[in-house]
Design a protein that fits this description.
- With about 150 residues, the chain is mostly beta strands.
- It has a single domain, classed as Jelly Rolls.
- It has 1 helix and 10 strands.
Length: about 150
């Protein structure tokens, strides 16, 4: 009986550690959001620095990116490196809200790295990103890049 309980706890813990896939349907667009890992896109080999900033508890920083027609994939990377602080990332596409995403989503501490895909193409236009200080002691610096 004790072995059965231990096995059950291990199976539940393993299920919680497996990254999830979130799909957001908006009619013509079906966004698939997954942890990006070490993915590099073929058509854009370099990450473009969008911002290096800092944030405090309860503060929001906003960024925007123009996504051209025909782009099918976007990788965003919020990296603060300190797992003792918690940041949240929300993604506002022109036709959908994706998130919230927290540190544990991708299994990497102190970082949220997402791949957003849509086989018919991401909705063109201005995408906005909200970085929120969910649980921050003092001031936390971070970088936010996209590919």
């Amino acid at each position: 009986m004790k072995l059965y309980r231990i096995a059950t706890v291990i199976m539940i813990a393993a299920a919680l550690l497996v990254p999830t896939v979130a799909a957001q349907g908006t009619g013509t667009h079906n966004y698939i959001v997954t942890p990006a890992g070490d993915t590099v896109l073929k058509d854009s080999p370099l990450f473009m620095p969008l911002s290096a900033g800092s944030i405090t508890q309860g503060e929001s920083d906003w960024y925007s990116l123009y996504v051209p027609a025909g782009k099918t994939e976007l990788i965003v990377d919020l990296n603060w490196g300190d797992p003792s602080d918690s940041l949240r990332l929300m993604v506002y596409a022109p036709d959908a809200v994706l998130g919230p995403y927290y540190d544990a989503y991708d299994g990497v501490n102190g970082r949220i790295r997402l791949r957003i895909k849509d086989s018919v193409g991401l909705h063109p236009g201005t995408w906005q990103f909200e970085v929120y200080g969910a649980d921050v002691t003092g001031t936390q610096s971070y970088t936010f890049t996209w590919q």
